[in-house]
Amino acid sequence: MELIRAVRTAVGDFGNVVFPAYCHSCNRIADEGRWAPLLCGECSDSFPHCDQVVAVPRPLDGGHALSRFEGPAKDLIVSLKYKGLLRAGGAIGARMAIAPEARLWLQRSELIVPMPLHWRRRWSRGHNQAMTLARGMVKHGVWGRARPVLARVRATRPQVGLGRRFRMANVSGAFAVKKRAVARVQGARVLLVDDVVTTGATAAAAAVALKKAGAREVRLYAAAWARPPGS
Q: How far apart are CA 199 and CA 226, in angstroms?
């Protein structure tokens, strides 16, 4: 057993020398720090944690974010979302699972629901970043499973650059609970998981569908909070 561990350590050390990991924020070698091998030590130390409540519109019953959407956090989320860096989603999800201020919400939640993508966007990206985050949370201690009970039934234009009123109109009626999942949603305390919350308009539209299907409570937990346009 000790020999196997020694061989594995030697192979790992050799791999780190020949194929070093580079920081996805500053491109330096990422061989130390809390976020290695995704971030170097300096970027790990400057990761903009906030782990706090954020304002979201009704019918959401609350919103929470792990970090601010800036610096190394933004770089990791962009790499997850647009470059398919799934390891980043797993690592962020793991930290979402153990964030002290979010723990009460996680304990109360009976259903973990990732925000869905429209099938065309899901096909073009090859993955759903919210599902990757949710799976990372579940793997690292959040009770239950990530359940894709929501469907995005209407394609919408990206929310980036839109004001609050236009964001709400853009996603109105864009979500529905899948018929086979209605019984699971009824009476449940739902935790919606997403990558970035700005005004909360998209999550609120999803909450409308969940509440219509009988959800008792719907709260949003995002990896990061971005300052709304014009604020």
A: 8
For the domain bounded by 49-225, which CATH number is listed? 3.40.50
pLDDT tens-place string over residues 107-123: 889 999 999 988 888 88
Tell which residue, 191, 178, 84, has the closest CA to residue 145.
191
The pair of three-digit structure tokens given for residue 209, joined into one six-digit string: 């569908």
Peptide bond into 20 cis (omega under 30): no
Which residues touch 10 (CB under 8 Å, ≥6 apart)? none
107: nearest Cα among 191, 179, 36, 168: 191
Of the candidates 80, 165, 83, 73, the one whose C-alpha atom is nearest the C-alpha of residue 114 is 80
Is pTM beyond 0.70 here? yes
Q: Can you tell me whether residue 79 is helix, strand or coil? A: helix
**What does the domain layout of the chain look like in residue ranges?**
1-46, 49-225
